[in-house]
Amino acid sequence: MSEIVPGADHPIPHDHADDVELYHPHSWITKYVFSQDAKVIGIQYSLTAMAIGLVALVLSWLMRLQLGFPSTFSFIDPPSYYQFITMHGMIMVVYLLTALFLGGFGNYLIPLMVGARDMVFPYANMLSYWIYLLAVLVLVASFFAPGGPTGAGWTLYPPQAILSGTPGGQGWGIILMLVSLALFIIGFTMGGLNYVVTVLQARTRGMTLMRMPLTVWGIFTATVMALLAFPALFVGAVMMLFDRLLGTSFFMPALVEMGQQLRYGGGSPILFQHLFWFFGHPEVYIVALPAFGIVSDLISTHARRNIFGYRMMVWAIVGIGALSFIVWAHHMYVSGMHPWFGFFFATTTLIIAVPTAIKVYNWLLTLWRGDIHLTVPMLFTLAFIVTFLNGGLTGLFLGNVVVDVPLSDTMFVVAHFHMVMGVAPIMVIFGGIYHWYPKVTGRMMNDAMGKIHFWVTFLGAYLIFFPMHYLGLLGVPRRYHEIGPTSFVPDSAETLNAFISVVALVVGAAQMLFLFNLAWSLRRGREAGPNPWNATTLEWQTPQTPPGHGNWGKETPPVYRWAYAYGVPGAARDFIPQNEPPATAAGDGGSG
Amino acid sequence: MPDTPLIRTQDAATPTSGWHSLVSDWSSDRHAFKDVSWGKAMMWIFLLSDTFIFGCFLLSYMTVRMSTTTPWPNPSEVFALEIAGTNMPLILIAIMTFVLITSSGTMAMAVNAGYRRNRRAAALLMLVTALFGAAFVGMQAFEWSKLIHEGVRPWENPWGAAQFGSTFFMITGFHGTHVTIGVIFLLIVARKVWRGDFDSGRKGFFTSRKGRYEIVEITGLYWHFVDLVWVFIFAFFYLW
Questions:
Q1: What residue of B is the nearest CA neighbor of A249?
Q2: Do B64 and A250 touch (CB under 8 A)?
Q3: Which of A219, A585, B24, B33 is deepest in the core (most CB within 10 A)?
Q4: Which of A239, A263, A562 lies at the smallest CB-CB distance from B60?
Q5: Chain B interface disruption, residue of A235, A251, A312, A318, most B CBs within 10 A
Q6: Number of domain units in chain A
Q7: How many CB atoms within 10 Å of residue A543?
Q8: Within a domain: A551
Q9: Is residue A11 part of a domain?
Q10: Boundaries of each Cytochrome oxidase subunit I profile domain copy (chain A) (predicted)?
């Protein structure tokens, strides 16, 4: 791996360009509340996302109580069950995963990892968080609105979403949901423009695109996708709001409800499905690509090996991002589309398996003969790889039209997407938090608590979702409050459901241990020092830990190499930070 | 990549044209787009995202126009004005389109004047652009009130498919909002140019950053985009 020798030809110039006029906070409020510092904004995003995620966790408990012990809990009636399902799905996908990966990790890590002082537009970045918070509050408000939140399912398909038969359909629920989504998109756009421009235009000296850590590549590509995919949801939400509030018929065909002809007529419900999934499928990868990136960095760091096939990894991320825009209708095989569409979308869907498989192989080859440290972040990373592989394989089942049609709307689908975009990215979020917590707070998270948290979560997730595949193959439908006796589902399915529910309660409780660990380690964790994992990327090389205002000292760090200089033969240590000048790196270890 | 000994900064010898220069820019450090400021890059990417919004609106309009079972009103008749006894189809839309495209011309001249540090001309031209924009929104308000007067509502109209009114108010309303926001920004920037903020290095109210004359060009990018979108709305909504 050749170094860049800053010789007479190409001296690394001093940091003269782009004189960032940082916003200097003057008070506690502008420093920690209305902060324009990407690091504080990232923490704000993360904490808000985790708080609303707790709501989703409790909702999943309630659903599992109903599914495991039907007719036991009188307060879970069918309408509220649908409300729980809807809000759980929407919160997890949009308000937790998207916000935490892009708003949380993105804000904290992008400027540090590319060697910038802050995001390029700190004021818009601050607005982004506060609009996100507003969106979350509007969402929470729908729990307290008359009629409760919407129960239309997270896909919000019309016409049922705005009819009186659906909880919240004729009340406030659906209105608040759509308004909240529109706000989220506006807020996200402000942040997203920041992330993209920061990566493209505000890197430090020597930081080429092909030297960026894969974490940045993942978040960057996901953000570009989000900026192109969220418009479809925005348009869909606006049009459905008009259908609900003004009586337009964008998505509403002629309908008879309770013997009454409604005023609607001539609209296209399928149009909403197309708009929704043009957002919805890229959304899966908006959540997955940052996870891919973070996992690559965690594997490389904790296995002390350079990432295998870095260039392929980057192109796989970009390729998956591009492909994900032409696969959306594989969510609509049973919508009555023309079969030729199914043919096209099944083909594109299965093609995505190629770059995805490249990534999985490269992760395995990075681990191959690596010096694997089974730290808590590494455990979560390994759990991600198996979980993602598992969910990806069932994705191949569902990507085929003929296999999908019988499996559609069964528990198999629930098992599939929870594995691939529920459990897998959350494993990465946990791994990422355990990994970067020392940089954010200066202290390590407690290892014993972390390991208990990991094993309960990992094994529990499999105990929960593995049997669901079997339930789905039996034909147990999803989104049913209670299926009652059928000719095709054996009684043992009920026992299995009860088992899943008990495990779900335990796994949920284990997350409280994680939250306790977060709070406990803030004061009592072991002092971490600037670089506890001996990592190479720039965020571990900051002059202060936690990084101060402006991230760097007088000058932003010059970058001499890629982010994966682990185990370089002849080097003094088993890692060479990106900003270490070649002379000292190759030297006698004087820099220690 | 590890095996390429590279550091390409601005002073390194780089090809100046074609794909080679593109590749060399993107594989260099610091900036992917050379000599493009953060603000300009942000505006371009925002406009790309906004394109998807208008694209989705127009595609949805075409879909419901095909899905509806009742006939679509004839735009030539609906958007006709009775002037001095003659029935003139699309006359108002033609004037509106002309005004908006003219405003793009004055905007381009304002950008030029701004970079020449001709403050007075730049501010005046931006003001003229804003006036054209306001005139456009005014004519749109007239068109809206005329149609509302004739009984067009988002949920119904006297001539046919209800989706006609729905898509008309939604799409032109969304575009009109864009024009209005553009007018407000033009006025704000024109005031700053007139006052000489970009020469004196006066800092922005929120951002504590100094502005530059480039903001005129960035506002112009937005303005031309709104103009371009109108061409598509004009073609798909009024001429189809």
A1: B163
A2: yes
A3: A219
A4: A239
A5: A235
A6: 1
A7: 12
A8: yes
A9: no
A10: 22-561
